[in-house]
Design goal:
The protein is of the alpha+beta class and 208 residues long. 48% of the residues lie in helices and 20% in strands. Strand 1 and strand 2 form a beta hairpin. Helix 5 crosses helix 6.
Length: 208
């Protein structure tokens, strides 16, 4: 009876240890590693995916940003499954030795998975380069064009706006002309013909 209980205890402990061995290792998905190349380019390496992993590298060098992407299945490598962090750190160490992180790196090879199947290799699928301040340049051009358009509209409005002329008081002129005609009539009635102008002037003064 004691031997049966001891055997049962050994089996339970063995199953527990097997369960611990089957427990998956911590994934490296979403992990970011910063490094510098041989020429001091500031680079960032990020990973995404589970079985098929996508690796993206972005670097900044003298006002230029360049990048490249790799795809592979490093999980087929036993060493990677045991410790993926060491795997990615070894890749970063290899990239540090290069003057350019994306040139001459069509396939990333490390000693850790040297005997693994070819599917475990990270192979480059895309690469690119662009000015670091390209986005800022586009924004500044857009702001300049919009400000120029606004200035053009305001100048057109100023040109098309008609000038405001002072109002001429016509009533005073009309009243003056009426006074002159009445004064002339009176001058013709009461003065000699040669004195019509003088009389009309005097009469106009008195009539206001």
């Amino acid at each position: 009876m004691k031997s049966f209980a001891l055997l049962f205890l050994v089996v339970i402990c063995g199953m527990g240890g097997l369960g611990q061995n089957l427990k998956p290792k911590k994934r490296s998905n979403g992990e970011v590693i910063n490094f510098r190349t041989k020429t001091k380019d500031a680079c960032t390496m990020s990973m995404s995916g589970d079985e098929e992993v996508k690796l993206r590298i972005e670097c900044k060098s003298q006002g230029v940003t360049y990048w490249c992407e790799f795809i592979g299945k490093p999980s087929v490598c036993r060493a990677f499954r045991n410790n993926p962090k060491i795997y990615w750190n070894q890749i970063a160490m290899e990239l540090r030795k290069l003057p350019h992180a994306c040139k001459s790196t069509q396939v990333l090879k490390i000693t850790m998975c040297q005997k693994a199947p070819s599917a475990a290799l990270m192979k480059q699928i895309a690469a690119g380069m662009e000015p670091e301040d390209a986005a800022d340049q586009v924004k500044s051009v857009q702001k300049t064009s919009t400000s120029e358009r606004g200035a053009g509209k305001s100048s057109i409005k100023k040109i098309l706006k008609p000038p405001i002329l002072p109002l001429i008081k016509t009533t005073q002129r009309n009243q003056g002309s009426e006074n002159e005609t009445e004064a002339m009539k009176l001058a013709r009635e009461h003065c000699w013909e040669s004195l019509h102008g003088f009389c009309s002037y005097i009469i106009g003064i008195f009539r206001g």
